[in-house]
Amino acid sequence: MQQALFGGGCFWCTEAVFLQIQGVQRVLSGYAEEYHQNFFAKNPTQGYCNFAIPPKLNKLRSKFTTLLKTH
């Protein structure tokens, strides 16, 4: 499994578009500052986070150029 990180405005809209691409298996959204594992599990009452989580890709089924064009 490979990962790629993309920036965007409304990350819920971006997430929905990326999930429609063949080969994209998972997309997670957040703010790009730093990475904290299990952030929401440790901070269940906080409605936002300060880190980015890249989408997981299957390199055999998804081409990076398709992702860039979508972005």
UniProtKB/TrEMBL annotation:
Enzyme class: oxidoreductase
Cited InterPro entries: Met_Sox_Rdtase_MsrA_dom, Met_Sox_Rdtase_MsrA_sf
Pfam families (UniProt xref): PMSR
Transmembrane spans: none
UniProt KW keywords: Oxidoreductase
Oxidoreductase among keywords: yes
Residue intervals of the Peptide methionine sulphoxide reductase MsrA domain: 3-32
GO molecular function list: peptide-methionine (S)-S-oxide reductase activity
Domain of life: Eukaryota
EC code: 1.8.4.11
Gene3D superfamilies per UniProt: Peptide methionine sulphoxide reductase MsrA (3.30.1060.10)
Protein's UniProt keywords contain Disulfide bond: no
Stated family: Belongs to the MsrA Met sulfoxide reductase family.
The protein, known as: peptide-methionine (S)-S-oxide reductase
Organism: Cylicostephanus goldi (Nematode worm)
